[in-house]
Specification:
mainly alpha
Length: 394
């Protein structure tokens, strides 16, 4: 790195790496210059916040393309917010989320959730309270652990072929899948650089067949792995934009990434839950995994929007000061979740790294869905360009 533009990029990378020494997992991926990472030392959060403030000021005059400057500045704003919080500055949860991820978390009125409950009541098998029926139906869809590997591999092959046909993939890209436990998330893409990812699927709780194709699409094709590998090939290797060699939790980069990854199955297969379910069944049934296409599709349509209860749970925890018993009860009542799954969600929302992250899922999907508007070419922009949440909303 030599000129002034390179200098601000190097300072951005150094800031992210240094802040990552304070929060485990904040640096989600780094495949940039190893000598830069080797020079990073422990720096107090307050000083890192000052470094971020100075970098923001210098970015205004940096010789960068306006869109690139805007993207880096949004990233640095998120990092500065995290540094200030670590330094002890009081920051409200909603303010933290907005500064880090570019959107403000919103409380979803229970009337909207009640509508999803009524839709589910109409399509779920059996009789009795809708929550009990949904839980019983969901948990009956657990994929045996010994069949997860073959199921994931079959789905990944199909989704990779669809992604290649729709968008193209860099020569040499590759994903390895493995199973893990004792993590706060259900699945995770570890991008290793060199166009390679390792995707871990958490088996602390049963992995459910109706969500497995979504999980593979989200983490791999055309989700996280596709975005990382396309940006490495296009922005890093071709344009030498080294800011793309680091992926940082607590920045708008994450909201766009999670939104496009949640949209991935719709883009690769169809926005119609019936077509998504038929695709999944074609891989799971031959492995002896029961899969009722009609019921899965109907439940998928009916439960649209129910995932937004996760944002309410985050606000209950961090903004409204609710006790743990109250939060668990709320998740059971409005999310129609068993206690174990609510507790797993709470472990994510109270993790030091992930406490503010839920908004990336809750707000990221509708933002990316609106931006793409059914056009694969606009989805391709998400996996190849530097875009910020405010640009998607414009």
């Amino acid at each position: 790195m030599g000129d002034a533009a390179d200098d601000v990029v190097e300072r951005y990378l150094t800031l992210g790496l240094a802040l990552g020494r304070h929060i485990d997992g904040l640096v989600d991926a780094y495949f940039g210059p190893p000598e830069l990472a080797a020079r990073v030392v422990d720096v107090p959060p307050a000083r890192l916040a000052d470094d971020a403030r100075r970098l923001l000021a210098d970015l205004e005059h940096a010789a960068l393309e306006p869109a690139r400057r805007r993207w880096i500045a949004a990233q640095v704003t998120g990092l500065r917010t995290t540094a200030l919080r670590l330094a002890g500055e009081p920051i409200g949860y909603a303010d933290e989320v907005e500064a880090c991820y570019g959107v403000r978390p919103r409380w979803v009125d229970e009337d909207e959730l009640e509508q999803a409950h009524r839709r589910l009541d109409a399509v779920l098998p059996g009789s009795g309270p809708v929550g009990e029926r949904l839980i019983a139906w969901r948990e009956a869809q657990a994929v045996p652990v010994e069949k997860l590997g073959p199921a994931v591999a079959s789905l990944a092959d199909d989704l990779r072929e669809r992604t290649q046909r729709l968008f193209g993939l860099p020569d040499g890209e590759h994903v390895d899948f493995d199973l893990t436990t004792e993590k706060p998330w259900s699945g995770f893409n570890y991008y290793l650089g060199g166009l390679r990812s390792r995707v871990s699927i958490n088996t602390d709780l049963p992995v459910l067949s109706p969500t497995l194709s979504h999980l593979v699409a989200h983490e791999a094709y055309p989700g996280h792995h596709t975005e990382h590998s396309r940006k490495e090939a296009g922005l890093v290797r071709q344009r030498r934009w080294l800011e793309e060699t680091i992926f940082l939790v607590g920045t708008p980069q994450c909201l766009v990434a999670e939104g496009l990854a949640d949209l991935a199955i719709e883009v690769a297969v169809s926005s119609d839950p019936a077509e998504q379910a038929a695709m999944a069944a074609s891989h799971l049934r031959p492995l002896g995994i029961p899969y009722d296409v009609e019921v899965v599709a109907e439940v998928g349509r009916a439960s649209e929007g129910l995932g937004r209860v996760r944002g309410n749970i985050a606000l209950l925890l961090h903004e409204r000061g609710a006790g743990m018993d109250e939060v668990v009860a709320y998740g059971e009542r409005w999310g129609l979740l068993p206690k174990a799954r609510v507790e797993k969600l709470i472990s994510f929302l109270t993790d030091e790294t992930w406490r503010a992250y839920m908004t990336c899922y809750v707000e990221g999907l509708p933002l990316c869905r609106s931006f793409v508007a059914g056009d694969p070419a606009r989805f391709e922009r998400l996996v190849t360009e530097q875009l910020t949440p405010d640009q998607l909303a414009a």
